[in-house]
Amino acid sequence: MQQRDYNEDPFIVIWELTRACQLKCLHCRADAQYHRHPLELNFDEGKKLIDEIYEMNNPMLVFTGGDPLMRPDVFDIAEYAVNKGVRVSMTPSATPNVTKEAMDKAKKVGLSRWAFSLDGHCAKVHDHFRGTSGSFDLTINAIKHLHELEMPLQINTVISRYNVDYLEELAALMEELDCVLWSVFFLVPIGRGQEKDMITPVEHERVFRWLNKLSKRVSFDIKTTAGQHYRRVVIQDKMRENKGKSEKDTIFYEDALKKGATGSIDGLGRAPKGVNDGNGFIFVSHTGDVYPSGLLPIKVGNVREKPLKEIYRDSPILQDLRNPDKYKGKCGVCEFRHVCGGSRSRAYAMTGDYMESEPFCVYTPRAMRKQKNTVQ
Question: Is 178 left (phi over 0), alpha (psi -120 to 50) or beta?
Answer without folding.
Answer: left
